[in-house]
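INFO  loader      accepted 1 record
INFO  loader      residues=286
INFO  predictor   begin
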Amino acid sequence: MSLPKILVAPEPMEKVNRPDFFKPATIEKKSEPIVEETLFSWVKSMIVSVRKVIPGALKKLMIPLAVIAVVNVVLWPLQTWKLPSSISNVVMFFIFITATYNNFIPKTIFWVIVFTFGKRLFYRFRKQGIKAFDPLKQVVPQLLSSYHQLKQRANTYLLLGIGFGLMIANYFASYSRFPGARNKFDKYFVALLVAFTVTYLLGESNRGGIFKFVRLLINDISRLLKKTYRFTDQMSHLLFGGLIAGLLLDAILILLKFMYGGYILGAISIIAAIALLFTVKKPETA
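INFO  predictor   done
INFO  writer      dumping tokens
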């Protein structure tokens, strides 16, 4: 027969004084596996989030789509060579700044930038004035700092970015339907706009979408090759700095009427970057 609880001897004081005596029992939870984000999963989540807002955004898109349609319907069929030189120059200027003569992909990129980044920058300029362009001041110091930190590896990422920039600019400044319309100045404004946008985003933040895209891409490639590769912000700075330089350098090739110069020099630059990647054994990062 068990004794009543009141008659049971109390716990010894040394046991009561133990710090874990009054601690409630805990239930161990099995830790869930951490799913590493990939470029595909990130893009998929972006598409899903965009699909959710599409119905409500259709009305807002009507005005931009109407503007794009009017610009192309009015400017595209104009025979500028038949117009007086004073009028022709004005028309060609509007064709230049509206990407009228560009292919579908660069034209789409142009209008997406105008109605997203351009709209945001416009509202910021209305509120802050000239201070809205302050992020541009951060770019050169960032690039110089990254260059000094990476040391031997710096030229690799600069050349890689320059190569891609030259090739992208050559593509943007060409029109596929006409063989002679390759690397022409009337289609070059998209490259200038992309260069400005990337420069602004580079000075604004290291956590923007373009930075995340590159980091996830590099991580996926290293995972595919089963090699660990540490891609730092300094590498991103120089890669995008080179991209900006390549986009701008194509203007010289356009003036020289080098129709495929961006592709050729861009490929040479990328090959040189790969050669440096294998000749420099150990990356130097801060």
